């Protein structure tokens, strides 16, 4: 897997995932939507850690500097 995520993109994903987790565990977003947001938070965190987004690869996008 080649890296295709830049530092700004990674930081934005981590902030969004933290927001999703906070919304769920504070009871603001509950039920199925809450579980979907927590799953997305996990995916965003994982892709930020490995610096690879499969959707970017399929679309041919790249936000990291060469």
Describe this structure in words.
There is one protein chain. With 66 residues, this protein is mainly α. It has one domain (7-59). Helix content is 68%, strand content 0%. It has helices at 7-25, 31-50, 54-59. Helix 1 packs antiparallel against helix 2 (31-50). The longest helix is centred in the middle third of the chain and has 20 residues, at 31-50. The radius of gyration is 13 Å and the shape is elongated. The mean pLDDT is 95.
Secondary structure layout plus pairing:
Layout: H1 7-25, H2 31-50, H3 54-59
Helix pairs in contact: 1-2
Structural key phrases:
3 helices, mainly alpha, 66 residues, elongated
What is the terminal-to-terminal distance? Answer: 15 Å
Percent range for helical residues?
55-70%
Q: Main sheet, how many strands, which sense, barrel? A: none
> Tell me, what's the shape?
elongated
Beta fraction: under 5%
Number of helices: 3
> How many domain modules?
1
- What is the succession of H and E elements? HHH
Mean pLDDT value: 95
Low-confidence stretches: none
* Structure summary, number of beta strands: 0
């Amino acid at each position: 897997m080649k890296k295709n995520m830049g530092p700004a993109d990674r930081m934005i994903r981590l902030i969004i995932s933290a927001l999703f987790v906070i919304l769920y565990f504070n009871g603001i977003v509950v039920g199925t939507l809450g579980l979907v947001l927590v799953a997305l938070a996990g995916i965003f965190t994982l892709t930020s850690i490995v610096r690879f987004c499969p959707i970017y690869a399929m679309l041919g996008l790249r936000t990291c500097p060469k």
